[in-house]
Design a protein that fits this description.
The chain is α/β, with parallel strands linked by helices. It folds into 4 domains: 3-129, Methylthiotransferase, N-terminal domain (Rossmann fold, 3-Layer(aba) Sandwich), CATH 3.40.50; 141-258, Transcription Regulator spoIIAA; 292-375, Transcription Regulator spoIIAA (2-Layer Sandwich), CATH 3.30.750.200; 382-443, Nucleic acid-binding proteins (OB fold (Dihydrolipoamide Acetyltransferase, E2P)). The chain contains 13 helices and 23 strands. It has helices spanning 13-26, 54-68, 82-94, 110-120, 130-138, 166-169, 178-190, 217-224, 245-253, 270-276, 282-295, 314-327, 353-376; strands at residues 3-9, 31-33, 42-47, 76-81, 100-102, 124-125, 148-152, 154-155, 174-175, 195-199, 207-210, 213-216, 232-236, 260-262, 300-302, 304-307, 333-336, 382-390, 396-400, 406-410, 418-427, 431-436, 442-443. The chain has a 6-stranded parallel sheet, sandwiched between helices. Strands 18-19-20-22-21 form a 5-stranded mixed β-barrel. A 3-stranded parallel sheet has the order 7-10-13, with helices on both faces. The longest helix is centred in the last third of the chain and has 24 residues, at 353-376. The protein starts with a strand and ends with a strand.
Length: 445
């Protein structure tokens, strides 16, 4: 008998990709995707360990689910992802409602684990087995039919930044075979994808050797350029150390690569970068920025910032502020440092919270002001938008421009999947609002 499965996804785009592939897998053993959280036979929380209080958010979500199913049959409760990898035994002991925990490099075993839980109550699978995982999913068709699709090309990290759990939850760097990525990209394009975003914890560290030749992310980008149905290419998340010249050259030679670079720096102080073990300097970062801007001055950057990392002085923080003023990032993430168990920085002395909060507010003012200013610069102008979907419960359409800005406007569902010119009438910090111009719309199919 067919059973219903619901997955709630937290965190990064890679988790969204993983959730879609889990759906593709469990379908083979009789589980059907449902969007109804209140009537599921199996409930999966695909978790992220990057942000603050990630573990507590999981327990809060489980408490909510327990209330839903208080008067009805309990679903199989699975905690997946990076929190499951890092906290597996503790979670099983603390919350009896959890039936199974499974780490992100064990998703190829999800079907067996579900069957084993039903038959003999096996509860855990958290081994690192990245190669087997991708070999398994390479045999299962990716059934995602989104206009803007994610495609994981690389997982894991060898950088060991002192604040980061990724090497412990995703394992060492692994790059998928070049041909397998292209095969999956072809499937996504046939399914209707008009934009593909390559994903990886260090996506620009992608390196696959075959027949004595190295294939890098630049090769993947240039191959995707050849598919006429595909209109846009993106990638995330990058490490400054891996912004090699062959990748930078893509911005000069590839018309489908979007002129938007998300390149986390974390701090504008070389002292703090060294304490973080980031393995790059501010000067190297600026050199990369200037190389890319020289190719095309319209290319824009976003970044990530950790505020009040242990040891950060006012002078260090001011250096970060100066970098923000210099580069004028159009959309960035900034957070006060919070320690992650098992990392090198876990036991370092924290900076006073009030000081940290003041610094965060100060840097966010500059980041948000420029973001608002950038969005206002689009007003009264025509921009090209890839229409992704209809907003649920509304008559409006949702799409994005080349800089990844959200664009909201009135339109018919038959515009989904098209590239349209939209005249921007107003904006706020996060979105642009406009109307379709009466011109030739270019079909993205």
């Amino acid at each position: 008998m067919e059973k219903k499965i619901f997955i709630k996804t937290f965190g990064c785009q890679m988790n969204e990709y993983d959730s879609n592939r889990i759906y593709d897998s469990v379908k083979k053993i009789g589980f059907k995707k449902t969007n109804d959280q209140k009537n599921a036979d199996c409930f999966i929380l695909n978790t992220c360990h990057i942000r603050d209080k990630a573990k507590e958010k999981v327990y809060h979500e489980i408490g909510r689910i327990k209330k839903i199913y208080k008067e009805k049959a309990k679903p199989i409760m699975i905690v997946a992802g990076c929190v499951a990898q890092a906290e597996n035994q503790e979670m099983l002991k603390r919350e009896p409602f959890i039936d199974v925990v499974i780490g992100p490099q064990s998703y190829h075993k999800i079907n067996d684990l579900l069957k084993k839980f039903v038959s003999n109550n096996q509860k855990e699978e958290t081994e690192f087995d990245t190669i087997s995982k991708f070999e398994y999913f390479d045999k299962i068709k990716n059934e995602s039919n989104k206009i803007s699709a994610f495609l994981t090309i690389q997982e894991g990290c060898d950088k060991f930044c002192h604040f980061c759990v990724v090497p412990y939850t995703r394992g060492p760097e692994y790059s998928r075979p070049f041909s397998k990525i292209l095969s999956e990209a072809e499937i996504l394009i046939k399914n209707g994808a008009r934009e593909i975003t390559f994903l990886g914890q260090n996506v620009n560290a992608y390196s696959y050797f075959e027949n004595s030749k190295e294939y890098r992310i630049s090769n993947l980008i240039n191959e995707l350029e050849k598919y006429s149905e595909l209109k846009r290419i993106r990638y995330t998340t990058s490490h400054p150390r891996d912004m090699t010249d062959d990748l930078i050259d893509c911005y000069a030679n590839n018309k489908k690569l979007m002129p938007f670079v998300h390149l986390p720096i974390q701090s504008g102080s070389n002292k703090i970068l060294k304490l973080m073990n980031r393995k790059h300097t501010v000067e190297e970062y600026i050199n990369t920025y200037e190389k890319i801007k020289k190719i095309n001055s319209e290319i824009e950057f976003s970044s990530d910032f950790i505020i009040s990392y242990p040891g950060e002085t006012n002078d260090d923080f001011n250096e970060t502020l100066e970098l923000v003023k210099k580069i004028k990032f159009i959309n960035s993430y900034s957070f006060i440092f919070s320690p992650r168990p098992g990392t090198k920085a876990a036991d370092l002395k924290l900076i006073d919270y009030e000081i940290s909060k003041e610094r965060l507010n100060k840097i966010q003012k500059y980041l948000f002001d420029h973001q608002i200013s950038m969005n206002r610069s689009f007003e009264k102008k025509s921009i090209e938008v890839l229409v992704e979907n209809k907003i649920q419960g509304q008559s409006k359409l949702f799409g994005r421009n080349k800089y990844l800005n959200s664009v909201i406007f009135d339109g018919a569902e038959n515009n989904i999947g098209k590239m349209l010119n939209v005249k921007v009438e107003s904006s706020n910090q996060n979105s642009l609002f406009g109307k379709i111009e009466n011109n030739k719309s270019m079909r993205a199919a």
